[in-house]
Amino acid sequence: TFRLNVARYHVHVVLQPPVALVQIDQSFYNPFARQQEGTFLFNLPPRASVSRFAMYVSRTDLIEGEVVERKRASNIYESIVRARRDPAILEQIGDNLFKMRVFPIFAKDTKRILLDYTVPFVADDGRYRFKLPLMSDLEPIWDFRLSSVIHSAKALDTVAAAGWPDVSFERRED
C-alpha cells in the first residue's frame, strides 16, 4: 500500500441553519511509474449523510455514484477493475468512518473525486456552531481552497471563525 498525495482539496460549505452542506472537490496524485489503486479513509462529523459521490474518468467526463448494498458494491467494483474500466467505491465502515477505493490512478497523474455530505447542527445557547475537520498527516496539499456561503437571518457581526482571526466576512445581496 502506497500513500498518495492530495493534489487538490477545494471545500465549499453552504451553511443554512440547521443544516450544512459540505462539497469537497479533491484530486489525488500518483507519483509512481505505474498505475495505482487509491484507498482513502476519512471521518465525517456525527450525524452526517453522504449526498454525492462522483469521479472524473477524464478531464471532462464525470460519473455519478449510486448507493447499493455493500456486498453487491464490492462485487461490482471488482468486476469493473477486471474489465479495466474506472471504478470507485465508497463504503461506510463505521459510524462516521468511510473508506473510498479508486482505480486506476494512472502513473504521474491525478484522479479527481467529488464528495458532498450534509450535516445537521443544533443551536447551542441560541448560536449555531459548525466545525470543519481539516487535519491530515499527508504531505502539504498543493491546491487548497475553502469557501463558504451563509444563509441566515442573523446579523453578520455574530459570525466568527474561531481560531482564525484573519478571516473576514462580507454581506452580499446575492
Average pLDDT score: 78
Shape: globular
Residue share in helices? under 10%
The arrangement of helices and strands along the chain is EEEEEHEEEEEE
Distance between the termini: 46 Å
Main sheet specs? 6 strands, mixed
Weakly predicted, low-confidence segments: none
What class, by secondary structure content? mainly beta
Number of strands: 11
Radius of gyration: 18 Å
Main β-sheet, spatial strand arrangement? 5-4-8-2-1-11
Individual helix count:
1
What is this entry, summarized?
The chain is built from one helix and eleven strands; from the N terminus they run βββββαββββββ. With 174 residues, the protein is mainly beta.
List keywords for this structure.
174 residues; mainly beta; six-stranded mixed β-sheet; 47% strand
Structural features, described:
The structure is a single chain. The chain is globular, with a radius of gyration of 18 Å. The chain has 174 residues and is mostly beta strands. The strands form three sheets. Strands 5-4-8-2-1-11 form a six-stranded mixed β-sheet, with no helix packed on it. A hairpin with a 4-residue loop joins strand 6 and strand 7 (97-105). 7% of the residues lie in helices and 47% in strands.
